[in-house]
Specification:
Largest interface: A-B, 30 and 27 residues
Bound molecules: adenosine-5'-diphosphate, magnesium ion
CATH architecture of the largest domain in chain A: 3-Layer(aba) Sandwich
Mean pLDDT of chain B: 88
Largest sheet of chain A: 6 strands, mixed
Oligomer: heterodimer
CATH class of the largest domain in chain A: Alpha Beta
Structural class of chain B: mainly alpha
Largest sheet of chain B: none
Number of domains of chain A: 2
Shape of chain B: elongated
Low-confidence stretches of chain B: none
Strand order of the largest sheet of chain A: 6-7-8-3-9-10
Distance between the termini of chain B: 26 Å
Strand content of chain B: under 5%
Low-confidence stretches of chain A: none
Chain lengths: 310, 260
Amino acid sequence: MIEVENLTKDYGARLGIDGLTFSAEKGELLGFLGPNGAGKTTTMRILTCFFPATSGRATVAGFDCFEDSLEVRKRLGYMPESVPLYKDMEVGEYLSFVAGAKGVEAKDVKKSVDRVIGDCGLSEYPKSMISELSKGYRQRVGLAQALVNDPEILILDEPTNGLDPRQIREIRKLITELAGQRTMILSSHILPEVSKVCKKIVIIDKGKLVAVDTPDNLVSNVHGATKMFLRIDGPAKGVTAELGKIKGVSKVEPDDSAPDAFIVSIKKGADIKQDIPPVVVNNNWNLLEMRAIQASLEDVFIHLVTKEDA
Amino acid sequence: MFRNIGLIYKKEIKSYFKSYIAYVVIAVFMVITGFMFNDVVVKFSMLSFKAQGNPMLAKQYNLLNVTETVVRPMFGQISMIMLLMMPMLTMKLLADEKKSGTMELILTYPIRDAEVVMGKYLAGLTVFAAMLFSTVTYPLLLIALGEPEIVPMITGYFGLFLMGAAFVSLGLFASSVTENQIIAASLALGMLFLFYLMSMSAAYVSPGIGRIVSYLSINDHFFSMAKGVVDTEDIIYYLSFVVFFLFLTMRSIESHRWRG
Ligand SMILES: Nc1ncnc2c1ncn2[C@@H]1O[C@H](COP(=O)(O)OP(=O)(O)O)[C@@H](O)[C@H]1O
Ligand SMILES: [Mg+2]
């Protein structure tokens, strides 16, 4: 549905993106993750036909973003990062304008506008001036304008940026509900934003692709060693020494969360779950807690991005 | 095609009136032109009064011809005030969209750049037409009170409209090169003056160049129309002027796209 091939954007002074390649299938929710300045907005602007790439190809729904830009734009819903709106218009008036501009037939405009007003939780505000809405509600209007032509493809650039935690939760929920059968690209520089909504994540940094995978695979592939969290009632020194002797354990450290807490790093592929209880029992200690620690996507992200730097 | 132009047009017209820009600019225009009209009429009646005692004076200078003494100066003044007010009418048309970022959205809707430009141009032209129409009371007063020639008045207004149409296209272009409205207005004013003053400088250069300069001058083409003569050459000049600046505007939007 969306294909990006070796895409490069040269701003003159620097490269906005540098040889990006990725794709999204029909109906896929793609998370587009990268620190500020990574090139997310640049990529999205090429996909939405705002500007052409310097080299490479971008196709949306089978149409080239440069050659067949009008065809692409007909199928698109886009919410730019800054959510630009006409502040001197009323919500309903604005959405009718957008519907017309996006080619919704005149007889269907009212229906489409009513639908997105309902869907985006704006039913109380159709007559409000956009300038009088709160940031969270402007975000909803931004989403509504993206959705008003019932687009196959939805491109949202950092849709929760600058909102407070409650608004973030509301907008995220709305996005998940409204994504429906659409193909969607959602960018963010904050990981939970995309890992909660998207099945597939593309990570970019400094304009280059760093990783493409599911959130789960990213976690398990990237970290060579997994870790376990243990709480054992016993002398700290002894526990550290005895656990260190178990085959497959690479490191044992006390954890700050409690005096009897330890973090055990495990070599890749090893399984030590069965080996720990006997050691504890043989030494007459008590095993209070034992669980595997999942590397968070946050770790993965930092790991991937800092690796690039090195 | 026409639907898209219509959509943009409607949005701009609404915004002109909702933001009071249209009301304020038209009102100020009326006040200034009204004051100047009053001034020429008073001068005219004083001359007529003097001429009653000295008929030779009137004959000599052809001063008692209303068309010469009132109508032509009136058109000259209206065109000057138009030049001063027009940049304020056009400055926001594109600069504002660039500043607020709405340009990015509108350029990703399935609308052609040319449709955006046409919609905005026609909106500016409409408000200008309303502004020009607001001065129609002055010639009507003259007709009611005196016996001016009607034809030069009609062709003069036609000329003013064409000249204003050219002003709007230039103003729209100025608005497309910057996101700052003050810069857009200043640029437009500067360029309009350049085209306006060209006719004066024509006298100082060699006759060959002088012909070109005076051809390019935006007001030379208006003079004969104010006298009642409509020449296709003048109409073609104004139309090409408009087309040229609308074309430049589209180029400017395109380069805005490329730069991002
Ligand atoms: N219009 C522009 N002109 C020049 N450089 C730009 C422009 N837009 C973005 N950049 C640069 O391109 C890089 C990528 O920017 P951007 O795509 O906005 O990143 P992101 O959206 O991931 O934060 C940054 O280094 C940025 O400074
Ligand atoms: Mg960005």
